[in-house]
Structures are given as C-alpha cells and as structure tokens.
Amino acid sequence: MFERPPTGQAAVIVHLAFGVAEYAEADREFRELVESAGADVLDHIGGSRKVPDPRYFVGGGKAEEVAESVVAHGAELVVFNHDLSPSQERNLEKRLNARVLDRAGLILDIFARRARSHEGKLQVELAQLRHLATRLVRGWSHLERQKGGIGLRGPGETQLETDRRLLNERIKTLRKRLEKVSARREQGRAARRRARTPIVSLVGYTNAGKSTLFNCLTGESIYAEDQLFATLDPTLRRMAVPVGEPLIVADTVGFIRDLPPELIAAFKATLEETREADVLLHVIDAADRERRAHAREVNKVLADIGAGEVPQIEVFNKVDLVEGEQARVEYDPHGVPRSVWLSAAADDGVEALRAVLADYCNPDMIAGTLRVPAAAGRLRSRLFDLGVVEQERFADNGDTLLSVTASQGDLERLVQQAGLDFEQALVQRRIARTQTLIAAH
Q1: Which architecture, in CATH terms, is 10-101?
Q2: Which residues of 419-430 are buried (b: 16+ CB within 10 A; e: fewer)?
Q3: What is the DSSP letter of 343?
C-alpha cells in the first residue's frame, strides 16, 4: 500500500454522465463542493457510461486517463462525484497511486470543517465513522495477521479485527451521547408545546439564503456566507409578528442532492426540529435556474426524515438578483398564501412574510378597539391581567376604550360573560385573522 500524502489539496475531479439531464448543473455544484473542502482543482475529467464498471467504476480506459492526469499535474487527491463501493475505492487508490474520495466522503469532510458546536461535531464524527466502517480494510490489508493478546486485543485477534472493534465501541459511545442530546431537545420541544409556542423551521437547498433570512426575521447575526453548508448547527430564536405572541424560528442544515445516508442518520436529533415544526419555510433561490430540481431534492429528503407532511410555505429568496422580479405574496384561488417572494439580503418583502406567518400561526388573533362601560370594570381588570391591552383611552360618556390584541374566541367569551354584545363592544377592528390551511407540498 502506498504512503498517503499529508495534505491532499491538489485534486483531479471526475464526473461521469449516466443519462442525467442536469449534468451541467450537477457538475458546477460538484466543483463548488470540492472547492468548499479546500482543494485546488487541477483537472476535470468527464465522460459517460451506461452502467458503472464493477472494478474501477469508470472503466479501465478512463482509469488510465485519470492516472495520467494525476502524474501530469502532480495531484495528491482524486475526487469522484459518485458513490464508490469500498472495493472500487481500494482498487482506484492502487491504480492511481493517490488518495481517492467519493461524493459521500467529500460531503462528510465539508461537514467536519463546518461543525462548530459540540453536538455538531459529535454528529459529524458519527457519520464519518459509519462511513469508515465499510472501508476500514483498505488501509490495513498489510496488518491482517494475528497478534498476541496484550492490552486490548484478545488471543488470535488480527489488527483489522481490533480496529473494527474499537470503531464499533466509539460508534456506541457517540450514539449514547447523541441520545442524551436528543432527550434534551425533546424536553425543550415539550416545553414549547405546553406553552403552545408555534415553531417555524427554515429548510431548503444549501446556499439558498436560509441563514440570511433567519437573521432578518429574528434580528440575530448568526454566521451566513455565500458558500455550501455554511450552517450545520441548528439555531432557535424568537421572532416578533404583527399580531399575537412571538414565534420560534429554527435555522437548519441545508440539503443537497444525494445527501449521504450516514449524515441523515447522524443528524437525527437536529432534523427532529424540522419534523416537529408547525410550518416549514421552504427557502428557494429565485435566481437559480435549477430551483425546481433543487426543491424536489429538498422535498425528497423531507419525506425521508418523516417531515413530508408538515405544512409548507415556499419562500423565493434573492429576487433582487432576478431581472423583472419583485417582492410579493402569491395566493391560491381560495386566498391562501402559496408563496412569498422576497430578498433577505435587501430586507425587501420580509415584513410581508411576517404577516403571512402571523396569519398561519395565530389564525384566531384579532386586533381592535373594545368599548367597556364603567359598569363592566371586572372585564377591564381581566383584560389587563391577561396582558392583552396595548392602550387605554376614555370616551366622552365615560366608557373605557381599550386597544387589545387577543384570541377572538377568548375575547368573545370574556365580553359575553360581562353581559355585553361582542359585535357592539368591538367598535374598531384593526386586523382580523382567519383560519387558513396551507397544504404540504
């Protein structure tokens, strides 16, 4: 087995077409992934096949072409935009005399670079170990001999068996730690459910602008950059809405086509925030020509994690980059908001999105002016105790005029208990919210 180079920065990338219509877009995305991992792309090798070659994936002739490119450019790393089997990866490394990385390994490497929190690092490490478990033999073929039982090894245990056992033990440890993380998250979700605080979760293809929109909605300043997978660690913050109590907004990891299953499994605790949300904001890059294909990929992952039935509102971001587009809200024939077009970077259309979320998450809220006669002092006290009074004025006849924001059902019940007619007492209705049903896409 060859000695692997310590850096792996100089790279040759390989991407074959297997009848995929979006080859050019996938190729552009692949190059961005490689560059996000910190590699310098020295050469790009394409081609097409009907089916993968069982030995080298790319076939003997193409493998020779890749080997010549590695030598010509002095490359240390060859990255494939495909999932390779352990044997194919091992055969290619022997043939190319360079480190070989497939698409799953590349995405795992990027996640390892982006993880910041303790939880995120645990999740990425678990995903990496699960991926490594199927490929352990490639680096230890020269150690498949039995050694004595000193220390951790048992009698007759090979070095390979030792490493597999240690790997499995580490995976078990990480699973236990992440189970504790999941339990803590569930406690938080249970507390929010008891408080009846609606949860809005941002989802979308990577680099669609979710974190920028999150900052606009919440007034936060979390890390947001024009790069793939800028956000890995979920962030939850409160968001004020025009009517009703604040909502909780969750920023989550971006999705991508062919997301490694190891990542979906490892990020289970994080993705539960998406599955338990009251509504999903599916953020779509309006300037991306492949936006519909990317939206399908996101919906596919949502279905895989059990969030396919969660109500969803499409948010087309970056309208400032599209000629002729402007911020707006589109409704279906029943008057239900179907999509919101905005620019988070320019803060254009964000307030319209707040109004849409207020309508959905607080469907029974009403804002208006309530006339309370002097004889109904108990009603006035009750409204102040509930904290729904925003302003108090007095009419010429001595009645109290209260500017209130509350659930219409609760307000009607309190007014009727005071012996008053609700429609007569509500002298001005500033904002009325009606029940809406936003179907999951």
Answers
A1: 3-Layer(aba) Sandwich (3.40)
A2: ebeeeebbeeee
A3: B
Task: Give me the pLDDT at residue 266, please.
Answer: 65
Query: In this structure, which amino acid lies at residue 400?
Result: T
DSSP 154: P
Fold of 365-432: Alpha-Beta Plaits (3.30.70)
Whole-angstrom Cα distance, residue 35 to residue 269? 29
What CATH code is assigned to 197-361?
3.40.50.300
Angle at 63 between CA 113 and CA 61, to 5 degrees: 155
Give the lowest-confidence range in 40-44, 118-122, 210-214: 118-122
Q: How many residues does the chain have?
A: 441
Of 232, 197, 185, 238, give the one whose Cα is nearest residue 211: 232
Domain boundaries, the chain: 10-101, 116-179, 197-361, 365-432
Contact 91, 55 (CB under 8 A): yes
> In terms of C-beta distances under 8 Å and separation of at least 24 residues, what long-range contacts does 216-224 make, across chains too?
216/344, 216/347, 216/350, 217/249, 217/350, 217/353, 217/354, 218/249, 222/251
